[in-house]
Amino acid sequence: MRSFLRSIAVLGLTVAGLVLAGSSTAEAASSPAGYDVSHPQCGSILPTGAAFGIVGVNGGTAVKANPCLSTQLRWAARSSGAVAAQPKVQLYLNTANPGQVLNQVTTWPTSGTNRYGSCDGSNSAACSYQYGVERATNSVRNLFGPAARAAGITATVSSYTWWLDVETGNTWQGGSTAALARNRATLEGMTDFLTSSGGRVGLYSIAGQWRQVVGTVPTSSTLTPLPSWLAGATTLSGAVTNCAKAPLTQGPVLLAQYVSGGLDHDRSCS
What we know:
By secondary structure, the protein is of the alpha/beta class.
């Protein structure tokens, strides 16, 4: 998951070195860590001693597959499971909405009916939603295709938590309230497809980038109750602090990521 948010220097963020009230630094350090990996770690030695593993299904964008998916799924399955609140194997998907440059992409939908109406190939909420459905469908196909068979996986969508990776480094619409609403529609399409198959869905981002991509999420949106995985920390204590911050929507903050030693570590907030 090393992309726009996944590097220590990329945003020049500063995170206060605080810990939650009632917790000590020693207690925080003693909590087993999870890790997230994806295509940038192809060919690298993956971290040992993971309490849980989160694997990127995509290869950096919503239309590409992670070429090391089967290897990394096997790695995650060997996690210790030492954090009871976190499943040993979790997944994340890259997200985007290229509707404003739809003439430059080949994956923009031209049909489909959904909560926003009928998609006719235009830059509309209906096509944005359909784009999300199709990108999630393609990611599921990647997971349960040859990579799954190579990893000996017989699970289904309902077996996993699926985190939607929302970063400004990917292609999003902007410039108006309507554009942000179309971005939300894409994420809703992904969410609805996965939850309709029994999957558990969460949101990964930094608060400032989340607001830049989606704006204000209405309470009627299916994004509203989803849990958050907050990025941006560069230390364990910073991640512990992020666990106490406001969620991206109205669901609980379940995870906080921090980058240390060139690896993406994940702290359980439960």
